[in-house]
Amino acid sequence: MPEPIEITFLGTGAAVPTIRRNHSAIVLHYTGEYILFDCGEGTQLQLQKAKISPLKISKIFITHWHADHFAGLLPLIETLHLEKRTEPLEIYGPEASRFVDAIIELSYWGTGFDIIAKDVESNQKIFENDLFEISTIKTRHSVPSVGYCFKEKDHVHIDIGKANKFGLRGIDIRKIKEDGKIKIGDKIIKLEDVSKITPGRKIIYTGDTRICPEIFKAAKNIDLLIHEGTFIERFEEREHSSAKEVARLAKKNNVKKLILTHFSKRYKTSKEIEKVVKLIFSKAIVAQDLMKVKI
Ligand SMILES: [Zn+2]
After folding, report:
1. How far is the CA of 69 from the centre of ligand 1 (A)?
2. Hey, which CATH number is domain 6-154+199-294, 3.60.15.10, 3.40.30.10, 3.40.50.2000, 2.120.10.80?
3. Per-domain residue ranges of the chain
4. Is 223 a catalytic residue?
5. Segment 99-139, tens digit of pLDDT
6. pLDDT digits (tens, 9 = 90+) for 208-227
7. For 168-174, which contacts have Cβ atoms below 8 Å and span 24 or more sequence positions?
8. For residue 102, how far is its CA from the centre of ligand 1 (angstroms)?
9. Which end of the chain is more exposed for a tag (fewer CB within 10 A), N or C?
10. Which residue of the set 68, 208, 223, 289 is catalytic?
11. pTM greater than 0.90
């Protein structure tokens, strides 16, 4: 069984928070790594409620620099400093250096750890290790913005019987796993000839956006799409999406699980959103603060 990917919704409200919905922030936990997407006001208190130590967070990905998505950074950094963090903290986002520099400037003595700002643009691979990669996705908002795609690396299970049949030794198996193929004599053996490949899981988080066709193109057949759904109905003049339209497009693109988040304060209960979107797409879920989902 592959390691679970656990997502914790720390904040699911839009520009104005409510008693029930904090500002945007999501933690993704996978193989010991904790990654934060957006860091709205109050994120560190939500982390405490979710029983996740802020010291564990290795990277923060900001979708855009509206306060409801980043105002929790300054107090979070202060806490990490007081808790004597030493590991560097990476903060990614469009124009990240500009905003991270401004935040660091607000502190008297700096921090005891390095903060590394990484500027990103749409449609870039921005991080990769042996287990997963993270890329940016185009979104459409009133300021520079991106969505993020987490893609687990494919799982390769070598069939020893088949490998033996092709005469592969241990060193050949390592090479075929690295290069995807190997030449033995005049014969080329492909990785798929001697293995079963299980595609890695894929998750997209949009941040704030109008309906953007590029997101749904990238989300075709995806395991989990976390999309903003600020309003139930469409408001032409707003830079946000309607939950109804997101549900319709997620269904059309065969999304395996849709979680809507970032709801306007006008909606007093989740039920009123849920009853509308479930009628369109039964796999749609309305996010709640502190909700945990495993895929
Ligand atoms: Zn927002």
Report:
1. 6
2. 3.60.15.10
3. 6-154+199-294, 156-196
4. no
5. 999 999 888 778 889 999 999 999 999 999 999 999 999 99
6. 999 999 999 999 999 999 99
7. 168/194
8. 20
9. N
10. 68
11. yes
CB 7 within 8 A of CB 28: yes
Quick check: 42 and 19 in contact, CB under 8 A?
no
For 6, 234, 255, 278, 282, the CA distances from 36, given in Å and listed in that order, are: 12, 29, 23, 28, 28
Ligand 1 mean position, distance from CA 219 (Å): 21
pLDDT digits (tens, 9 = 90+) for 17-52: 999 999 999 999 999 999 999 999 999 999 999 999
- Residue position matching structure tokens 């933690």: 27
How remote is the CA of residue 44 from the centroid of ligand 1, in Å? 18
CA 289 – ligand 1 centroid, Å: 15
